[in-house]
Amino acid sequence: MHDPSVVDLSRLQFALTALYHYLFVPLTLGMSFMLAAMETVYVVSGKAIYKQIAQFWSKLFLINFALGVATGLTMEFEFGTNWSFYSSFMGDIFGTPLAIEGLMAFFLESTFVGLMAFGWDRLKRGQHLAVTFLVALGSNLSALWILIANSFMQNPEGAHFNPVTLRMELTSLPDLIFNHDAQAKFVHTSIAGYVTAAIFVAGVSAWYLLKNRHVELARRSFRMAALFGVLATAGVITLGDALGFIGGQAQPTKLAAMEGLWKTEQAPMPFNAIAFPSQKDHVNYGVIQVPYALSLLVTHSLDGTVPAIDELERTAAERIRNGIPAVSALQVLSAKPGDADALAQFQAHEKDLGYGFLVQRYAPDVTKATEADIAAASRDTIPQVAPVFWSFRAMVVLGLCMLAFFVLALIYTMRNNVERQRWLLKIAVCMIPVPFIANETGWLVAELGRQPWTVYGVLPTWMSASTHSLGYMIFSLIGFVSLYTVFIVIEMYLMVRTIRRGPDDEHAPSPSIEPQAARLAGQAEG
Amino acid sequence: MELYATLQSIWWLLLGVLLMGLGTMVGMDMGVGAILRYVGRTDMERRVALNIIGPHWDGNQVWFILGGGAAFAAFPLIYATAFSGFYVVMLLLLWSMIIRPLGFEYRSKMPSPRWRNAWDWALFVSGFVPMLVFGAAFGNLFQGVPFHFEWNLTSFYTGSFLALLNPFAILCGLLSVVMAAYMGATTMMSGAEEPIYGRARNVARATAIAAVVLFAIGGFWVHGMQGYTLTGGPAPGVPQTPLQGSVSVAAGAWFANFHAHPALWLVPVLGFAGLLLGFLAASANRSHLAWWLGAVAWIGVIGTAGVALFPFLLPSSSHPAQSLTVWNASSSKLTLGWMLGFALVFVPLILWYTSWAFYVMRGKVKADHVAADEHAY
């Protein structure tokens, strides 16, 4: 059996390492395209300032990229090391997009990023531009395949359970790829990366403008970022709405948690703008509502309703009862593959197999599951409402703030007097952390809201984890936390240092390097 | 042969190709890291060494990532069982590997000698440890690993972490390290001038001989070792689980494939030939040839392990019948088929643009270029 605290620690470790990895990924996604855009302007216009712009931002890009690559390795390992049952149970489906990602995208991105950094003098202008575009293409294709894999966890399509091999297997790769959730999520997430990059570039440029340094570079960068940012933010919000629409149908429990819906209500449903959900009491405290708004937002009509938690728990209890015979039949099939009675029983209850697994947490022998066990398992089907509810609101509010900022930034940069709007520039600097927080809250909504499943409705999280000892988990958590803390300190330090030094210093080697390097050389030889 | 069994065999082969690619391409970068402190004595010499692989290490590393991804997709039970069973060792591999991108990218960003020295050690660790673990993992495959499955294929590893670092595994680990160092050394011979060149040449010659010795010792060791033989269970190409297997264990069984098909002896011969001719090529200052012979040696050495173990991928020492094989650990026919299609399209493409990238960056790295280039490591 699985030790519940090992499962919790495995979740904590995965969440920490994924959230951490996700600090660097969006900036890579967006910056790669911004670099391509800057370099395009350079190649088309031939103005040296744009080469300087592209090279300066690519320096910051690479500092960020290194940590993105490093922490991405962890993700590749972690499914196997900490979610071994998930990996063997879902690998037939889930492994495929990951492997294709490597073949199609990651090789492309990683091979050409080396040429992008080292090839300025070796490649013709057009060739180097093509290389930069291939890096952007590679990183974004990479995101596409990862999100296709993730969307299978959110909305499993294109797969079925094979009772002979005791695992889920692929039935259709096109169904897996053209999963509705995947399409909306890819666009929403990759454009969120463009927003992140646009805010980053705008913020750093604003800082230069405030300091009256590198004004030419900063003003042009700021303008490009503002234009890029307005379009991207509008895209993120539109696709976010579509994603909420699709996700709400695929995962009603997530939607109910996002909106804090405990009791099913008649249309038109009000929107809980502010509420303090209590998981224990199944009720919200301190509610401020907007009438009609929820029906409009999530069903795009006034007479639409969505199921609330009370109804969802009742449905889950039914499905758990129906899933129990599926699990017990499977147990027979494992020992006697092809047993006709067991196979018939399994097929009759197959669609609720995952719900049967859910109650196995409380009743290892599912045929002995009591009503109390079923009630506990059906309560488990509801994710933790408060963190999902608040993460969602934080993401939306921050997204709207960024839209407002970009609209203002675009207006003033088009009027050519953004340098004089010191208030706006100060806001721009303060905005730098905002997209990062919004990205992380978006991840939390998607993944906390998916609980208690690793693959929604199919495989519960509690079964998915590896059967490690508590000691192993504490060891690995301490290791990750210490390493990652050191990494972020170093990365932030180098980022800030590179920004402070700015683009000018780099052509002339700074005076401090040479004597120290010579001293080092002397020491090493002596 | 059934289509499914054919696909399974092809993916066994492709996984082998990826591991050979890993040994060659990642091995060369990690080899550079492992011998950096010996080959480069001054800061500038070390920078030159790092800039030889600077444009390529990131692309090369994808061989490793794709190896993991392909194992996940083509042999999910292997990926799941091995990665979780080898937990602590895998974490050491991972942690040493993830300091490597930072070592390359951040080392020369600060002038402080202490900073650079610290990163040089980090690059040493991140070159040495992963290759040691990579080889040691193979060593453990030969000896079997204590794991078993519950009725629903939840896996349990019942050994200790230290058991994975046994003498035979260490031997295989060292073989992998010296072969990586050889790849790194021949790469540096191609990309650097004296005095780095001469030191790299010494390393290449020494590691080639060391690898020959370690490979030979490993062969004798395996000869006396308990090997595994499939004795029953569902036939190849029939969908199955490891719960239905039947396996016997006997000394010398790992040589059974060679005895049955004597032509297979050519595979270990390839390993020895690559290393010995590589020694001669390095001695004769033919650095490119020496590098390619190193790649041949990787094919021979990993091929030898694969041939000896076939059809086993991960034998269980505690429950031999539940050993994982090419037939019971693979993905479904549909998945293997799709993946093969993608591999047939993209692997040639990858090889093509990787070669182009090496072509663009060909030639010797010179100290004055490194000093002048703001993007250099």
Structure overview:
The complex is a heterodimer of chains A (526) and B (377). Helix content of chain A is 74%, strand content 6%. With 526 residues, chain A is mainly alpha-helical. Chain A has 2 domains: 4-251 and 383-507, no CATH class; 309-380, no CATH class. Chain A has a two-stranded antiparallel sheet. Mean pLDDT of chain A is 90; it is low at 505-526. Chain B has 377 residues and is mainly alpha-helical. Chain B has a domain at 9-224 and 329-363. In chain B, 69% of the residues lie in helices and 6% in strands. Chain B has helices spanning 3-39, 43-53, 57-74, 76-85, 87-106, 113-143, 167-191, 196-224, 256-260, 266-283, 287-309, 333-360, 367-372, and strands spanning 147-149, 155-157, 226-232, 246-251, 312-314, 324-325. A two-stranded antiparallel ribbon of chain B has the order 1-2. In chain B, strand 1 (147-149) and strand 2 (155-157) form a beta hairpin. In chain B, helix 6 packs across helix 7 (167-191), helix 7 (167-191) runs antiparallel to helix 11 (287-309) and helix 8 runs antiparallel to helix 10 (266-283). The relative contact order of chain B is 0.16. Chains A and B meet through helix 2, helix 3, strand 2, helix 10 and helix 18 of A and helix 2, helix 3, helix 4, helix 5 and helix 6 of B.
Main sheet summary of chain A: 2 strands, antiparallel
**Taking Cα atoms only, what radius of gyration of chain B do you get, to the nearest Å?**
21 Å
Number of helices of chain B: 13
Number of domains of chain A: 2
Q: By helix and strand content of chain A, what is the structural category?
A: mainly alpha
Residues in helix, % of chain A: over 70%
